[in-house]
Amino acid sequence: MRHPPRPRASPGNGTADHLALRSNTVLEDASMEDELVRSGRFVRIVARGAQTGQARVVTVGFVMETTEADAALFVAAASGTTAWARNLLADPGCHVTVGERSFDAVAEELPPADHARAIRELILRYGTPAESLGSGPSFRLRPVAGELA
Q: Domain-by-domain residue ranges, the chain?
């Protein structure tokens, strides 16, 4: 008996939306991702695929940075080969949804000191991560028109 394909945990390449049409299990996972984004605990990023140019969707954990001047979100990839991170490196323009807010943003790769701080804050918010968190790039998602503040 052949089983439907199992979704990978946090694929980072937008496959959850495409697979939702093929499997009830994945459809339930997509609904759970929607709820996590609506709750404000996770952020959904829509970025242009580095190779295809097509819209790619990923849901990831984040921490918010608020200063007197502006607000931004920090996100981090588990490895340098994570598809969503490569997409943001190739084209930093993206669309972000968190809670009830949705806005256009620019992804700025973090320098080493900010990268370490972002990883520390992500661990404090979400608990002990996979060993590889921080092995890939991290980004500041800065709203294009100050829409997050």
A: 15-143
**Burial (0-12, 13-18, 19+ Cβ within 10 Å), 82:** buried
The answer to whether residues 30 and 18 touch, using CB atoms and an 8 Å cutoff, is no
CB proximity list for 42: less than 8 A, separation 6 or greater:
33, 36, 59, 60, 61, 62, 98
Architecture per CATH, domain 15-143, reads as Roll (2.30)
* pLDDT tens digits in sequence order for the chain, 149 residues long: 454 444 334 444 444 443 333 333 444 567 888 898 999 999 999 999 999 999 999 999 999 988 766 789 999 998 889 999 999 999 999 999 999 999 999 999 999 999 999 999 998 898 866 667 778 999 999 999 766 55
